Amino acid sequence: RVVGGTEARSHAWPSQISLQYSSGGSWYHTCGGSLIRRNWVMTAAHCVDRNMNFRVVAGEHNLNTNDGAEQEFSVSKIVIHPYWNSNDAAAGYDIALLRLSGNANINQYVQLAAYLPVVDYQICSSPSYWGSTVKNTMVCAGGDGIRSGCQGDSGGPLHCAVNGQYQVHGVTSFVSSQGCNVLHKPTVFTRVSAYISWIENVRRWW
């Protein structure tokens, strides 16, 4: 959920997926993610660094209802960035790729995301914001005390409009330990453009 946001129009973000885990015979949403190829999803490393049974649901809008647009896939491979350290999220590298058990059917409800951004980090890394906690491999959004990411958003995309096309600039990573909506503590995202070479290498060799 986004603090201070509004509910998105149904299927307005067709590259967004729901990452879910199995427990007690039921599936539960844990993180978001972006469909970057028909059989690959990009999410946050901290979403999948536990030994759990995951699935991906594309075309989802309301987690409590099924409107027929959903496509469900088991996860056949999880590739976490080799430098990710779950005990030091501020070090960065909070990114992972999931290979799906099959290819998503691309339609009006399920589409691929673009991922070619460059975003400046000077404000977010200033002393009055996150300071040295934020690296140049990260992107920030929010921090105005009104709008913010929160628990459950992890792994989901930061979309930015570039030349009339929405592109994925970030993967939701962390918020302040003081809460989800703290002034001058914007939501921090893994900057996708810093990892494009790694993404392409994983897709090529896995």
TrEMBL record:
It comes from the Eukaryota. Its cofactor is Ca(2+). Coiled coil: none annotated. One of its GO terms (cellular component) is extracellular space. Signal peptide: none annotated. PROSITE patterns: TRYPSIN_DOM (PS50240), TRYPSIN_HIS (PS00134), TRYPSIN_SER (PS00135). GO terms for molecular function: metal ion binding; serine-type endopeptidase activity. CDD domains: Tryp_SPc. Keywords: Calcium, Disulfide bond, Hydrolase, Metal-binding, Protease, Secreted, Serine protease. It catalyses: Hydrolysis of proteins, including elastin. Preferential cleavage: Ala-|-Xaa. Residues 2-204 form the Peptidase S1 domain. Its EC number is 3.4.21.36. The keyword Disulfide bond applies. GO terms for biological process: proteolysis. Pfam families: Trypsin. It is found in: Secreted. This is pancreatic elastase. It comes from Halcyon senegalensis. The lineage of its organism: Eukaryota, Metazoa, Chordata, Craniata, Vertebrata.
